[in-house]
Amino acid sequence: ISAVVNDLFYEGNLLDGISEMDRSPLLDWLPTLCFFNVNGTEQIERDNSFYNMAEVYFIIKLIQSLIASGIEGSMIGVITLYKSQMYKIYNLLSAVHSDGLEIKAVQVSTVDAFQGAEKEIIVLSCVRTRQVGFIDSEKRMNVALTRGKRHLLIVGNLACLSKNKLWGFVIHHCEGNNCFVMCENKTSWVHRLRKENECSSDKRKEAFVDCGKSGLFE
């Protein structure tokens, strides 16, 4: 995570105060930085705040999968640039009856409100599918990319974000490190992820990374 931020905003001059050993992955098959391409559609509320229900549903399933894999809800934070998206995610999480208290312990917030806070796992919902919007701001992008201590899971639209120079760099980094997932169907991916205990660590990571090109979403 820090390598991307360092190259984007600090010209490689940022020094890590914590070693990789001190912040090892919580799940050995889960990349520390990963981009999930979700082909949803942005919509707008009367207050001009955007939301994307495809991302909302995917994020709910993603959180359920993480908790099913042993992650505590209090370790997870979900951030987005738009209040409408924040409320959609929060309300749907609150309506989920499975996993009880762990689901309710997940923090959902806007990027601006989350400044100064951190979580072990951050899920970032980018929302927009036509124009990049607020997330084009270098300051907001810096905050969004640096809230995760161990894992940053970015959920967004490839076609939209790749038009932006900064986001194009992030996506290229994820692709180069086999941490890019085409999420055409959220359900199949979730079922595969929940089977992670049935195979070795290497096989788990391979299945996770390759799920978008192996027929798992068909």
Automatic annotation (TrEMBL):
GO terms for cellular component: nuclear body. One of its GO terms (biological process) is termination of RNA polymerase II transcription. It is an enzyme of class 5 (isomerase). InterPro entries: DNA2/NAM7-like (IPR045055), DNA2/NAM7-like_C (IPR041679), P-loop_NTPase (IPR027417), SF1_C_Upf1 (IPR047187). It catalyses: ATP + H2O = ADP + phosphate + H(+). The keyword Phosphoprotein applies. The keyword Hydrolase applies. It is found in: Nucleus. It comes from the Eukaryota. One of its GO terms (molecular function) is 5'-3' DNA helicase activity. Residues 1-157 form the DNA2/NAM7 helicase-like C-terminal domain. Its EC number is 5.6.2.3. CDD domains: SF1_C_Upf1. Its main location: nucleus. Pfam families: AAA_12. Interacts with DNA repair protein RAD51; the interaction promotes RAD51 strand exchange activity. Also interacts with DNA repair proteins EXO1 and BRCA1; the interactions are increased following DNA damage induction. This is 5'-3' DNA helicase ZGRF1. The lineage of its organism: Eukaryota, Metazoa, Chordata, Craniata, Vertebrata.
